Amino acid sequence: MSPPHPDPSSRPPQPMQDDASQVGYYDTDELVQQRDESSDMLSQIEPLSDESLQALGRLARYKPPFDTYPVPAGRAAVLVALFGSRTGKNLNVLLSTRSKTLRTFPGHVALPGGKMEAGDMNLEATARREAFEEVGLPYNTEKIRYLTTLPPYLARNLLLVTPVVVFVIDYSLKPELNADEVDTVFSFPLSGFLSDTGSDPSLTNAVPKDVVTGQKPYHTYADYEWFGSAPSRFHSFETNHKPVTGLTAGILIQVAEIAYGRKPAFGKEAPGEKSREELFQAASQDPRWKVARAQPSIDDTPPSGKL
């Protein structure tokens, strides 16, 4: 059972706010201070390559935009947990496959996450609580250090989903799966979400052989109309498990862009695709918007189904 009031020490304790200006937003001075502390600790981890250390530095320097969206109803968060590969050359991300017995989205690949609850002081607390409940990642913020928060995404069921990015410093941590929610956990190279083919050396052991040889495509996408207007692009990436698709793929593309300071080798957006703010505005006028505030879980599939 998770603690009733998680208290991530990397954020100052505060009660649930009614004002969106104080939820999911972090003071610039705090980010600078935290970045200095993180750099000292990260510099002591010899296995990490220079590229990986630079990627973590870019994430720690990323300033999340001011969060102006309604809270807490209809808010959710996912934890993007990064850690070094065995060789130290790559940064990997922790992913899970949802239990096949779940009523919603069984078997899908996902990031740990879920809806904000009354005991969550902010969206980081939501992401950490869900990761603890699903895969046993502890609340310890010295072993799992906060890096940054990304702007929220719109899930198919109209929940606003905020990605919280952390770095797992303690290599001794072992996942403890909640079998009711999670079937398996696996890792995948973060840089792979910028690649268009499976021939990238970092993907050799992360994707099937027919993907590495080019017999099967590694990356595909489809454009769907959302709210009867401009299309939105949804991506899919093959793995040795199930594909990473939809919302999860979109989040990891953006995390990889920030971390490695480059654009993906493919078109990320559909021609004429709405900005995230325009999409939120259109969604808020949809009759399903109020219904979405009561949704129990995140729907990360494209509007017309799985890719």
UniProtKB/TrEMBL annotation:
Coiled coil: none
GO MF annotation terms: coenzyme A diphosphatase activity
Ranges of compositional bias, category Pro residues: 1-15
Span of domain Nudix hydrolase: 73-213
Family annotation (Gene3D superfamilies): Nucleoside Triphosphate Pyrophosphohydrolase
Annotated spans, Disordered: 1-26, 266-307
UniProt biased composition (Basic and acidic residues): 270-279
Example GO BP: coenzyme A catabolic process
Cross-referenced InterPro entries: CoAse, NUDIX_hydrolase-like_dom_sf, NUDIX_hydrolase_dom
Transmembrane intervals: none
Record protein name field: Nudix hydrolase domain-containing protein
Naturally occurring in which organism (per UniProt): Microbotryum lychnidis-dioicae (strain p1A1 Lamole / MvSl-1064) (Anther smut fungus)
Upper classification of the organism: Eukaryota, Fungi, Dikarya, Basidiomycota, Pucciniomycotina
